[in-house]
Design brief:
The complex is a heterodimer.
Chain A (H helix, E strand, L loop, with lengths): L4 H13 L8 E7 L7 E8 L6 E8 L10 H11 L9 E5 L10 E5 L4 E2 L5 H12 L3 H15 L14 H15 L5 H11 L9 E3 L8 E4 L2 E5 L6 E3 L2 H7 L22 H12 L5 H27 L6 H5 L4 H11 L3
Antiparallel strand pairs in A: 1-2, 2-3, 3-5, 4-5, 6-8, 7-10, 8-9
Chain B lengths: L6 H17 L6 H39 L5 H12 L3 H14 L5 H22 L8
Helix pairs in contact in B: 1-2, 2-3, 2-5, 3-4
The chains are: A alpha+beta, B mainly alpha.
């Protein structure tokens, strides 16, 4: 496999500037890997020279044409914020904010953690998660406990770096994204926004919210969650957003056919909520979770719609964004069910 | 039904991926492979959608027409006419959205339209789930 010299050079320069590599370091492997919608990911190995050995990294880049124009710098700072929290996240090794890079946009470098990603739309992965649930429940327990730990992180240091949004601001944000990107009118989505607004829950103290919390954004190693990734949608707000979002049928592997009956293909719903409540000290109201599940579906809809717009305008040739068109019918179905139409 | 990208736009994207595959000098890397598999998935889903499109459109038109029958208010009669003349799901979406914006929140017609939309989304997902190679699909 040939290595792109420009990308390798930019990677090393960023690590050297951050003090995480020396001039003697050299890139021995660099390949764009599967996954990532609004981010592109590259697996890399860097030889740090005699005595220091070779280490694995991930380069996370924000390309020009993507599903969301989220701030990569904010995501980098979130990784820095959670580095000392009792949750498994990779250390970050330097951020290049320039738009003009060999990665077609800004990028940062982080350690590559052990473990593999789970794809809940793949049957064998759902079977593996169901086996964990039927057996040791290490993955299920970690998913609940780590979420509680995220919600215990003091969000104050992140204020100013990531968005602060209460319930109404979150609804406003995603509806404005949806309207800005939409190519056609969608009465199911519009009715869902009205329905969600009518169900504003009693507020709770704002927390650090992951914003895209699901087993698919975790790494699994030895029957445990070994990494929590993809913090680009994090914000300071209502922690119940994470509980609702991960409860989407889509995140249990539903596409055009049903997925797992387990929450996020990982755990029984009541068990998970009880475990989270015990670990976080927060009660879980299923009706509030239902509201946030609908809001999560609307967020996904807005993201997919943005991707369709980017593709339709010819700003990217990433065919996965066009494929996203076929996610939308299932999300409409989820919304109709949540609203009990 | 309320589809943003037309079939021809999707086909252009799939064709671009076929050209990419033809130009590959080695086995595809992870990202390239995911692009090709996404293009393959688009062809399957689009084929299923096309095979069921006419039936789904007719059923939705009929269902919404039944939901609006007996409502003589101008917004309802206008929507009914637009839905009857609709040539695709986008036109139906426009008509339904105009109607819902004109109705009070707790209006019985709104509830009837919701039920029709629920049946529509269920039928659309079921259409996409059918294999395009299924005989008589």
């Amino acid at each position: 496999m040939s290595i792109d010299d420009a990308k390798a050079g930019a990677l090393l320069q960023t690590m050297i500037a951050a003090g995480d590599a020396s001039q003697a370091a050299r890139v021995t492997y660099l390949e764009q890997i599967e996954g990532g919608w609004s981010r592109h990911s590259y697996a890399a190995r860097v030889d740090h020279g005699p005595g220091a050995g070779e280490k694995a990294y991930i380069v996370r880049a924000r390309p020009r044409g993507s599903t969301l124009d989220t701030d990569l710098g904010a995501e980098f700072r979130t990784f820095e914020l959670v580095a000392d929290a009792p949750i498994p996240t990779p250390a970050v090794r330097g951020f290049e904010p320039s738009e003009d890079t060999p990665y077609d946009g800004p990028f940062f470098v982080m350690d590559r953690l052990d473990g593999h990603a789970v794809n809940v739309w793949r049957k064998r992965d759902r079977v593996a998660l169901a086996e964990d649930w039927a057996g040791e429940r290490g993955i299920a327990a970690d998913l609940a406990d780590h979420l509680a730990a995220i919600h215990r992180i003091d969000p104050a240091p992140a204020a100013g770096a990531i968005p602060v949004r209460d319930f109404q601001a979150t609804v406003d944000h995603w509806q404005s994204v949806s309207h800005a990107a939409r190519l056609v009118r969608d009465p199911v989505v519009e009715e869902a926004y009205t329905w969600v607004r009518s169900r504003e829950p009693e507020p709770v103290a704002p927390c650090l919210v992951h914003g895209d919390y699901r087993i698919g954004n975790c790494l699994i190693d030895g029957g445990r969650v070994s990494g929590i990734l993809d913090w680009e949608l994090s914000f300071i707000g209502d922690p119940r957003f994470d509980l609702g979002y991960m409860a989407l049928d889509y995140h249990a592997g539903k596409f055009t056919t049903p997925g797992s009956e387990l929450l996020n293909a990982t755990a029984d719903r009541a068990w998970f909520h009880a475990r989270y409540a015990e670990a976080s000290g927060r009660e879980v109201d299923p009706e509030v979770v239902r509201t946030f599940t609908a809001l999560g579906a609307l967020m996904l809809f807005a993201i997919m719609t943005t991707g369709l717009g980017v593709y339709a305008r010819g700003e990217t040739t990433d065919v996965r964004l066009a494929w996203g068109r076929f996610v939308l019918p299932g999300l409409r179905q989820d919304l109709a069910a949540l609203m009990q139409w | 039904m309320f589809n943003a990208l037309r079939s021809d736009e999707l086909l252009v994207g799939v064709g671009r991926m076929l050209r990419l595959a033809a130009d590959l000098q080695a086995a595809p890397e992870g990202f390239e492979r995911s692009q090709l598999l996404s293009a393959f998935s688009v062809t399957r889903l689009l084929a299923s959608e096309q095979r069921g499109a006419a039936v789904l459109l007719a059923a939705t038109r009929a269902d919404l027409d039944a939901a609006l029958a007996g409502d003589d208010r101008p917004a309802a009669t206008a929507a009914r006419a637009e839905i009857a003349a609709a040539v695709d799901g986008i036109a139906i979406g426009d008509a339904v959205q105009d109607l819902l914006e004109a109705l009070p929140a707790d209006d019985p017609t709104r509830t009837a339209v919701h039920h029709a939309l629920r049946r529509m989304v269920d039928a659309e997902v079921a259409t996409l789930a059918r294999s395009p190679e299924e005989p008589g699909a």
